[in-house]
Amino acid sequence: MGRSPCCDKVGLKKGPWTPEEDQKLLAYIEEHGHGSWRALPTKAGLQRCGKSCRLRWTNYLRPDIKRGKFSLQEEQTIIQLHALLGNRWSAIATHLPKRTDNEIKNYWNTHLKKRLTKMGIDPVTHKPKNDALLSSDGQSKTAANLSHMAQWESARLEAEARLVRESKLRSHSLQQQIGTSSTFASSSSASNKAEAPPPPPSRSSLDVLKAWNNGGWLKSSEGSGAIASTDLESPTSTLSFSENAPPIMNGIGGENNNNSNNNNNSNNDNAMPMIEFVGSSGNSSSLVKEEGEQEWKGYDSSITTFSSGMHEFTMAMEGTWVHETLRTNGSHDDIVEEGFTNLLLKTNSEDPSLSSEGGGESNNGDGGSNSHSDFYEDNNNYWNSILNLVNSSPSHSPMF
DNA sequence: AAATACACCAACCGCACTTCG
DNA sequence: ACGAAGTGCGGTTGGTGTATT
């Protein structure tokens, strides 16, 4: 079908926004909400197309946007998620509260990608550039399985993000009806991407992350002489951490609390900070508490492998996502039967061919570089960390 | 000081997907 | 079921600031 242009090109302004335009847009949205983006420019008295207004709002004017340089933790999160999701910036953004997909994308393209390349790591595959030379059956299998897992996980993440967004929108609608003076801040957050909890301080098992932590390129991150430097800023989100105890993750709105999350915290010293999502109801929800910095600073401390967490996680997946989504998809029967869960479990424990030792031993026996073997040896931890990362996401909304 | 190269990032473009009548 | 409208998303561009020669 033909596709109409998003707006008439004639007479519409393009290019950088002026403060006046920003003010108009802000004022209008604050008062009326954005409603239909196409109709907004006219109503707001802007000579812009709706698309431009939407972009300006979502990428710049939204009051819940965190600007400024990315913290080390955020960088790690981006790298990990990019390894998992590829260039799916919106999905990645759901795990980086207050960061827009555009900002993440820009940061990746201008900073992270280059750094990886400089290190000889392919920013696309997240493997050492000459890794292809090491390819063999075992590794191929491993890679294939991991890739397979990633695809499914990726799909799940997308669904999560969407549902959380919807959930937030819904709760926000209620809040708007209540109407408080702080509505603006919360409204904007509700009308945008789902806010995700900060990722767990995952162990840097990927080569990239190891290098990130230990290598010299930290010097390129301003002011970070050490990993846990004071510069390590906590990713922020609309969260509330309990003051002294690791917060407990609750579902959006505090309605659905998946027990699996609690288990990840069996070891308080090392475990990720558990996150309590503040429900959209109540005024406190509009407060953004940026705490938990201490927890992040300790990210380098070892995190126990999330064996128990993995179990819970995969159990949950079998009971929910796998069951409800995958099983209805006939084209993926093979996966459904074996189950993503089983793939995960195999990868982490059972299947020798998928285990780190299996891959590393058979493929790097010729004395491949340590970094190469490490990459595969650390697959378990790597995926555990990612899964934990995912597990800490607001995936346990009532929808699931 | 001027010219050039480079880095950064806001904004645009257009395709894909979803929603709605 | 269909098509148009609306929106989301990722890739790319172009303007601006900074560093280097």
From TrEMBL:
CDD domains: SANT. One of its GO terms (molecular function) is DNA binding. Residues 9-61, 62-116 form the HTH myb-type domain. It comes from the Eukaryota. InterPro entries: Homeodomain-like_sf, Myb_dom, Myb_TF_plants, SANT/Myb. One of its GO terms (biological process) is regulation of cutin biosynthetic process. It is found in: Nucleus. Residues 122-147, 168-208, 228-270, 348-373 are annotated as: Disordered. Residues 181-195, 256-270 have a biased composition (Low complexity). Residues 136-145, 231-243 have a biased composition (Polar residues). The keyword Transcription regulation applies. Pfam families: Myb_DNA-binding. PANTHER family: MYB FAMILY TRANSCRIPTION FACTOR (PTHR10641), TRANSCRIPTION FACTOR MYB16 (PTHR10641:SF586). This is Myb proto-oncogene protein. It comes from Vigna unguiculata (Cowpea).
